[in-house]
TrEMBL record:
Stretches assigned to the ABC transporter domain: 43-264
GO annotations of cellular component type: membrane
Protein name: ATP-binding cassette domain-containing protein
Family in the record: Belongs to the ABC transporter superfamily.
InterPro entries from the UniProt entry: AAA+_ATPase, ABC_transporter-like_ATP-bd, ABC_transpr_TagH-like, Bact_Polysacc_Export_ATP-bd, P-loop_NTPase
Organism: Methylococcus geothermalis
GO molecular function: ABC-type transporter activity; ATP binding; ATP hydrolysis activity
Keyword vocabulary terms for this entry: ATP-binding, Nucleotide-binding, Transport
Superkingdom, natural source: Bacteria
Record bears the keyword Cytoplasm: no
The UniProt record lists the keyword Nucleotide-binding: yes
SUPFAM superfamilies: P-loop containing nucleoside triphosphate hydrolases (SSF52540)
C-alpha cells in the first residue's frame, strides 16, 4: 500500500544525568569556591564521574503508524506525551534510537515560532533562505514570492531583519513559506495559537486547501475544534506510546478522557495548603437516564480556616472540546472543618451524549481549585423526542451541546406578513 509516512517500531531514548549533592562546609565556601566547583564539575563531566547517576528515559517507544498520501492527520497528547520528540524525528532534526521513519515526498515543518529563520536576515532574505533549505530553486521561490508575502501580510516589514518581528509576524511568515512551497507533506504544530483569530481562520482554510489538493497534513493542536475541523483521523500519544489511532471524533474522546474517571471518586489537590481532602463525584445511581433529568454530584473538602464565600462552578465539555454549559453556585460563611455538599443541576437541557466535567472553586477572588476532566457524564436518550434531538445533533456533526424549548404562539394569518 502506498504511504507518505511510515513509522516502524520507532523509539527515542535520552540519558538523564543526576548529580549527587555534596554538602558545603559553609555559605562562604559555597560562594567563594563556586568557580572552582564549576571547573571541577566540568572536568568530571569530561572525564566521566563514577559518582554521577544516570537514567535511561524513553520519550517514545514502539511507535507504529502509516499515513497515506493526501490524509489529514491530527496528533493529540498531553504535555510530555512525546509529541515534540516525534515531530522532530519526522522533520529529520532528531534521529530515532530504534526503528525507522520512511517518508515519501518533500516535507515542510512549522514546529515553533521562527523555525528555520535567521534572525539577522530580512523577511525577504528568509523567504529565499527557507525555500532553498526545502530544495526549491531561486526561480521557483520567485514565482511564489508575491503569494507568500500577501498571505503573511508583512509587506511593510519585508526588508526588516526578522529579529525585530513580533511573534505573530514570525508565525505568519513561517506558515506562509511552509504552506506555499508546495510540499507533499506539511507538519504544523501548535504555533498557530500565537496568531490572531483572523489569521488562524485563514491558515485553517489554507490547510483545508492543501488536503483537497491531495497533499498530506499532520496537525498538532490542543484545540479540539480545530482538530475536528481539519483532520479525518488522529493519533493519541500517552507516555511515549500511541494508545489510539482512529477516526478523529473517537480519538478526541479518548484524549479528553485520559484524566477522567467514570464518577470522579479520588482525592484532588487544591492550590492552597489550608484546603485539603477534596473529593468530587457524580452520583450516577441517582440520575435517571432520560433527557434533562436532574444531575446530582457530591463535593467533599476540609478547610483549616473560615471561608466567607465559596464560589464553585461545574462546566460541561462535549466530545470536541467545547465547553457548552457552566453552572454556578455560592455558599457563604463556611466554618473550618470537614464538609460534604450535595450539588443538584436541573433544567440543564444537555443533548444526550458524553460530557467531560470541569470543577472550579473560588474564595472571593482567589482560585482554590481547578480541575479539568474530573469525571465523565453519560446521558442517554430515553424517549422518542430525546432520540430525535440526538439524531439531529449527530447529523450536524455530533457537536453536542444544549437544547432549549421554543415557545410557540399562533398568530392571526394577517400578522404573518407584517413587519415591525
Amino acid at each position: 500500500m502506498s504511504y507518505a509516512i511510515l513509522a516502524e517500531s520507532v523509539g527515542k531514548s535520552f540519558t538523564l544525568h543526576h548529580l549527587r549533592n555534596r554538602p558545603n562546609d559553609s555559605l562562604r565556601d559555597a560562594l567563594a569556591g563556586s568557580l572552582s566547583h564549576l571547573s571541577r564539575s566540568l572536568l568530571r563531566r569530561t572525564r566521566g564521574n563514577q559518582q554521577d547517576e544516570t537514567e535511561e528515559f524513553w520519550a517514545l517507544k514502539d511507535i507504529f503508524f502509516q499515513i497515506r498520501p493526501g490524509e489529514r492527520i491530527g496528533l493529540l497528547g498531553r504535555n510530555g506525551a512525546g509529541k515534540s520528540t516525534l515531530l522532530k524525528i519526522l522533520s529529520r532534526t532528531l534521529e530515532p534510537s530504534t526503528g525507522r521513519i520512511r517518508i515519501r515526498g518533500r516535507i515542510a515543518s512549522l514546529l515553533e515560532v521562527g523555525t528555520g529563520f535567521h534572525p539577522e536576515l530580512t523577511g525577504r532574505e528568509n523567504i529565499y533562505f527557507n525555500g532553498a533549505m526545502l530544495g526549491m530553486s531561486k526561480a521557483e521561490i520567485g514565482r511564489k514570492f508575491d503569494e507568500i508575502v500577501d498571505f503573511a501580510e508583512v509587506e511593510q516589514f519585508l526588508d526588516t531583519p526578522v529579529k525585530h518581528y513580533s511573534s505573530g509576524m514570525y508565525v505568519r511568515l513561517g506558515f506562509a513559506v511552509a504552506a506555499h512551497i508546495d510540499p507533499e507533506i506539511l507538519i504544523v504544530d501548535e504555533v498557530l495559537a500565537v496568531g490572531d483569530a483572523r489569521f488562524q481562520k485563514k491558515s485553517i482554510g489554507k490547510m483545508h486547501q492543501i488536503g483537497q489538493e491531495g497533499r498530506t497534513l499532520l496537525f498538532v493542536s490542543h484545540n479540539m475544534n480545530s482538530i475536528m475541523q481539519l483532520t479525518q483521523r488522529a493519533l493519541v500519544l500517552e507516555h511515549g506510546k500511541i494508545v489510539c489511532d482512529s477516526a478523529t471524533g473517537d480519538a478526541v474522546t479518548r484524549y479528553l478522557s485520559v484524566d477522567a474517571t467514570e464518577d470522579g471518586v479520588r482525592p484532588l489537590k487544591p492550590r492552597v495548603d489550608w484546603l485539603s481532602d477534596v473529593h468530587f463525584r457524580w452520583l450516577r445511581e441517582e440520575t435517571d437516564p432520560g433527557f434533562n433529568n436532574p444531575l446530582n454530584f457530591r463535593l467533599g473538602f476540609a478547610t483549616e480556616r473560615r471561608i466567607s464565600r465559596l464560589v464553585f462552578t461545574i462546566g460541561f465539555v462535549n466530545t470536541v472540546g467545547a465547553r457548552v454549559l457552566t453552572c454556578k453556585a455560592n455558599l457563604d460563611d463556611i466554618e473550618s472543618g470537614q464538609h460534604s455538599l450535595g450539588l443538584g443541576i436541573t433544567d440543564h437541557h444537555l443533548i444526550p451524549g458524553t460530557y467531560f466535567v470541569q470543577l472550579d472553586l473560588w474564595d472571593s477572588a482567589e482560585e482554590l481549585f481547578s480541575y479539568e476532566n474530573i469525571c465523565t457524564v453519560d446521558l442517554f436518550a430515553a424517549s422518542t423526542d430525546d432520540r430525535l434531538i440526538q439524531h439531529i445533533s449527530r447529523r450536524r456533526g455530533d457537536k453536542l451541546g444544549c437544547y432549549a424549548p421554543i415557545t410557540l404562539q399562533t398568530l392571526p394569518a394577517s400578522e404573518s406578513h407584517q413587519h415591525d
